[in-house]
Amino acid sequence: MCEYTNYINLTEALNLGLFDDVPYKYLKKVLDHTINRAEYYFYVDIKDISSNNHSGFVTEFKFTIENCKITKILKYNCVSDIAFAISKLIEEEEEEEEEEEF
Known about the structure:
about 40% strand, 3 helices, about 30% helix, single chain
């Protein structure tokens, strides 16, 4: 089981569906049209719950938006858009760790 910590922006969060089923009252400030979604970052804990079993992948995301703690579990297969987006987040995290080592 792998765990990652990352900052993601609103655009990435929306593409992953992290705000699906979250009440609008917690999202109205961050989804305001005056906020640049590509530049608004927030902290997310990412944990692989299962990887490549017969039904695909399961990943857990934990984060806080406007004092609301949210846990989102995503189930997906390896060729989905979600898999691509998550692998991109993980690669960015690993690149940052390598840069810190030097």
